[in-house]
Amino acid sequence: SILFLFVSFSIAPAMCSTKNAMSCPLMWYADERNGEKKICELLPPHEGPLPVILMALGRSGSSITWDTISRLTGGANVAYEVTGGNHNKSQQFFDNITPNVGHSWALERLCLIQKRVIQQTSHSGIAGFQWKPYPYAMDHQYALGALREISKHQNPSIRVIYLTRNEIDRILSNQRHKGHIHSKEVPHHCKAGDNECVQKHKKRSNIILRTGQELINYLDAAFVREEGIHLKLARSGVKYLHVSYDELFNSDTAAEW
Length: 257
Fold this sequence. Notes:
Helices cover 44% and strands 12% of the residues. It has 10 helices and 6 strands, in the order αβββαααβααβαααβα. The strands form 2 sheets. Strands 4-3-5-6 form a 4-stranded parallel beta sheet, with helices on both faces. Mean pLDDT is 84; it is low at 9-33.
């Protein structure tokens, strides 16, 4: 379960030493109090929020899942789509990584986010970002290198959650928002009790779902993509947790949590 993942990693033994330099990343950040540059080191579990990367494609429920986990483990905070919210932005993100940052971009970003979350919500239990696992975002040399760096890091261990959703539900959700990205006409999410927002979504519910061989081909491609993500994570040595949106939010039990 998700919560067991946090508990089991929280008691992992410390392995940060000069012999294992990969577990002691040295990253610089600006101290907002005096503007001085300081080395950014990820804090161990008893000193700061646990670093987490949430991997999920769009319309998979990543925002509500992160919000729920952050509330269950301490205080609510936001995990932004650091690697880009679509294919083009994802490609732009990885192409813009400079060689001096290279494979360490994920650890550096986690460290800076951890510092920011501590300043904003001192009681948060997790801190991290969303990584959309588009093909380019998983095949790029700096993506694969970052996964290997993540797998080696200890004290704290980097938690990786791979969230998936029923593919047909993703299709319907994407079609509902097609042409209305970041618009008020069809908001991405509705807050509890926001009937006006719910009505806007209902007006966009007249959706024609692809059928027959076209649907079969789409689902086959989605299956191959998902299996490829599992394979890349495993080959990189990343210990990750795969959870289902449907089991998290549409089940009669809390087993997935």
